[in-house]
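Researcher: I'd like a structural prediction for the single chain below. Treat it as a standalone chain; there are no partners to consider.
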Amino acid sequence: MERPKQKMSVEDRAKQFAPFAALIGFEDELRKKEHVVVPKISLSEEALEELDKQMHLIDAGDMVKLVYYKRDEYIEVIGKVSIIEPTARLIRVVNTAIEFDDIKSVEILKKFYDK
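Model: Treating it as a single chain, here is the predicted structure.
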């Protein structure tokens, strides 16, 4: 006579479908290798002058697109300028604080007073 099968618990059933990681930490190491280190570009005098001109046109509340250098890569951020501190040489776009020296390019998308 055959015994009735016991029902498997929900936890035991879930374990069957859990991902199997034969090499713990392998995926993290792969992600580290995927990071491409980009050297910081030295801007020409003309590019620096144009950047300086654009930075002087920015006011708090303006919508901007900024490309800046951080930890071996260039990052693009689009958002509203919350603070611009010329003496500290710092601009904050939403919650991201960026030093002027790290900025590669800036584009004013919309002025605060534009409708």
